[in-house]
Design brief:
It is a single chain. The protein is of the alpha/beta class and 219 residues long. The chain has one domain. Helix content is 41%, strand content 20%. It is built from 4 helices and 13 strands. The protein has helices at 2-46, 107-121, 154-158, 168-192, and strands at 52-54, 57-58, 65-66, 68-71, 77-82, 86-87, 89-92, 95-98, 101-102, 128-132, 135-136, 141-143, 146-149. The protein has a 6-stranded mixed beta sheet, with helices on both faces. It has a 3-stranded antiparallel beta sheet with strand order 7-8-9, with no helix packed on it. The N and C termini lie far apart (68 Å).
C-alpha cells in the first residue's frame, strides 16, 4: 500500500513538473518571438536613416518604457509600440487582432501613452503614436489617433511625424538626455526594490558566565 501511495505521489509530482516545464517553454518561446519582432522593427527603423533612435527607454508611469523612440530625418518624433503577429490586423474598440488572434492588452492605448510620455519629455511637442506589427499584411491605418502599420511601412509612416526639432544636433542632444533620464529612473527603481536579508539569528544571546562579565562579583 505504501509503495502504491508513493508511486501515485511520484507520478503527480512528475505531472506537476512537466506542466511547469511546459509553461516555462511556452513563455520562453513567446519571449523569443517577441525579441525577433523587435529586431525586425529596429532593422526597419535603421533603413529610414533616422537622426536618432532609442529602444526600451523609460519615459514614465508604471511600466512606462517605450519599445522604440525615433527622431526622424525630417526632425519629427515618434513613439512605437511593437507587437508580434503575421497577417491582417484589425481593431474593434479596445481589441486588436492579427488574423483571429487577439493581441494582449490594448496596444493602441499603450502606444498613445508612450507618445504622451515622450511629448512631456520634449516640452509638450506633438509626437506620432505608432503600433508596429512586423508581419502585418494590410496597409497602414489609424485607430483612436494611433497609426498601425507593418515593418515594411515604417518609413512611410514616420514621414507623417510632426516636426519637433530645428536641427539634427538638437534631436541627438534630446535623445542623449532621454537616455540619461531613463538610466536614472531604472537605477532609482532598482534602489526601491525590497532588499533580501539573511534570516536573523533567533537564538537568545548567551549570558556571560559569572565572574567574566567585567563586573565585580559580590560576595
Amino acid at each position: 500500500m505504501l509503495a502504491a501511495v508513493l508511486a501515485v505521489a511520484a507520478g503527480a509530482g512528475c505531472a506537476f513538473a512537466c506542466r511547469r516545464s511546459a509553461r516555462a517553454l511556452r513563455a520562453a518561446g513567446r519571449a523569443a518571438i517577441g525579441a525577433r519582432s523587435e529586431r525586425e522593427v529596429r532593422a526597419a527603423i535603421r533603413r529610414t536613416d533616422s537622426v536618432a533612435a532609442g529602444y526600451g527607454i523609460v519615459l514614465g508611469g508604471r511600466g512606462g518604457d517605450c519599445d522604440a523612440v525615433v527622431f526622424t530625418q525630417w526632425h519629427g518624433a515618434a513613439a512605437i509600440e511593437v507587437k508580434t503577429g503575421h497577417g491582417t490586423v484589425t481593431v474593434d474598440g479596445d481589441t486588436m487582432r492579427v488574423g483571429r488572434r487577439v493581441l494582449h492588452g490594448n496596444p493602441a492605448r499603450q502606444a498613445a501613452n508612450g507618445a504622451r510620455w515622450l511629448a512631456r519629455r520634449l516640452g509638450g511637442a506633438d509626437v506620432l503614436a505608432v503600433v508596429c506589427v512586423p508581419g502585418m499584411t494590410n496597409p497602414p491605418f489609424t485607430a483612436s489617433g494611433v497609426t498601425v502599420c507593418g515593418a515594411r511601412d515604417v518609413g512611410r509612416v514616420l514621414k507623417a511625424a510632426p516636426r519637433v526639432f530645428e536641427s539634427a544636433d538638437q534631436a541627438k542632444a534630446a535623445m542623449e538626455r532621454l537616455w540619461r533620464e531613463s538610466a536614472a529612473a531604472e537605477a532609482a527603481a532598482g534602489a526601491r526594490k525590497p532588499q533580501v536579508r539573511a534570516p536573523a539569528d533567533t537564538r537568545r544571546p548567551r549570558r556571560a558566565p559569572a565572574g567574566r562579565s567585567g563586573r565585580r562579583q559580590g560576595r
